[in-house]
Amino acid sequence: MRCGARRLIVGVALTLVVAGCGESPSVTMYKKGEYQGKQDTHASAGEPFKGDKAAWQAAIKSRTKSQDEYSRSATN
Amino acid sequence: MARMKFLCDAERCIECNGCVTACKQEHEIPWGVNRRRVVTLNDGVPGEKSISVACMHCSDAPCMAVCPVDCFYKTAEGVVLHDKDLCIGCGYCFYACPFGAPQFPQDGAFGLRGKMDKCTFCAGGPETDHSPAEFRKYGRNRLAEGKLPACAEMCSTKALLGGDGDVVADIYRNRVLKRGKGSEVWGWGTAYGKPEKQPGAKS
User: Which residue numbers in chain B have pLDDT < 50?
Assistant: First the structure.
């Protein structure tokens, strides 16, 4: 009877001691997702530039610069 | 490597909505979807300011971070695009976006939310360039033609600038240095005179 009670106490104590071991972290860690869709080609890959990245960049740059009317006007 | 950016000069924007119209016309955007819109602060009050807003193609885009199906990607030039075939129309990107850029077409009689639609910087999407599928899903691919977004190129006062971020910043810096400040700038003061000279104006 006494032996059974002791076993029970030891069993409960052991259970309490190891109870925390199985706990998994509950804080969600953010992982950056990977794009899952179809792959896109570069803007210069199409018909007008035929993969010439430098020509495409030059075209975009000159087009961007043309938005500046100060540089387009003769007085400035 | 060019990094594509928009910049709207609130001193120049006259709320003509030309950018909105250009965008809708260029991409044949359906009714109820506005990839770009003009927001006016203090509307009707002297000194009101308008600004043209669309997807700002954020360097650290929150829409990309919250998408549960990871349908967003960023091109080498920093343009944030998405794959409509993957989009489930959940609307998380809409809640995450500080600019309200993601738009959802209302399909059907009961307002069923369709796939997300937003400004593509006129760069199309993950379909063959200039293909009918690309046009139908994402609109025209002007960038692949060596052109800038239609909204920026159509802007009559050049308030909306678009293109290589370094060049855009140089244009804006030069403009700010040359035009001065207050009512000297191209805008309200030019059109209506200085506020203190207006008859009946409170001093």
Answer: 203
